[in-house]
Amino acid sequence: MSEESEPFLAPTEKVQSRRTLKALIVNIAGHVLLISLYTVVSLVFVDYRTRSCWPQVNAIDHLKVEISRGSSNFYESTDFVGSPGPETDALWNRLLSDRNIRVSKEELSRNERTSIELPDGGYLAWIGIFHELHCINLLRQWKHKDYYFGNATQEELEKIEKHTGMHFTPSNMEK
């Protein structure tokens, strides 16, 4: 038999090649299945843990809670992030105007909080989101600090700088 008429691989090598390919496909499919399983289990765990982090909806008895879900385009400009001026400030003032609420001693205890007692009874409280909004507004103002804090003393500027976290810059972290 001439060299050209002989098969390139011996019959046993062909069978071995098919087995290797089959094993490779089974291994890939197994890994894809395991990764999918780990992903599903992780997402269920994260969803469960996230839900348990939320405070009780009835933490404040007289508070009406409305949850709405939607999508937002965070890159879209709104009137809240415009140039500094009376119109933008009025929007922020209106948004933050009702941040103080009156709660009972029982409501404070249920939430493991303390506060100052108000003259007409009850205790002063803020709903958590208002603190976050206050800080976002302060960051917005800090961005335009010449406009908002032009007459502030160095001590006041340092206090605001600490509150906004702007003192944690790479240049002063090295000091």
Describe this structure in words.
The protein has 175 residues and is mostly helical. The protein has seven helices and two strands. The protein has a two-stranded antiparallel sheet. Helix 4 (128-143) packs across helix 6 (154-164). The termini are far apart. The relative contact order is 0.06.
Could you write a compact summary of the structure shown?
This protein is mainly α and 175 residues long. Helices cover 54% and strands 5% of the residues.
Characteristics:
175 residues; mainly alpha; 7 helices; 2 strands; membrane; transmembrane; UstYa-like; transmembrane helix
Give the termini separation.
84 Å
* Number of helices, where a helix is a run of at least 4 consecutive DSSP H or I residues: 7
Instruction: Report strand %.
Output: under 5%
As residue ranges, the low-confidence spans are 168-175
User: What structural class results from the helix and strand content?
Assistant: mainly alpha
Helical residue percent?
A: 40-55%
Shape: elongated
Order of strands in the sheet with most strands: 1-2
The count of β-strands is 2
Structural Rg: 31 Å
Mean pLDDT level: 79
| H-E string | HHEHEHHHH
Main sheet specs: 2 strands, antiparallel
Keywords: Membrane, Transmembrane, Transmembrane helix
InterPro entries: UstYa-like
Transmembrane segments: 24-46
Pfam family, one: UstYa
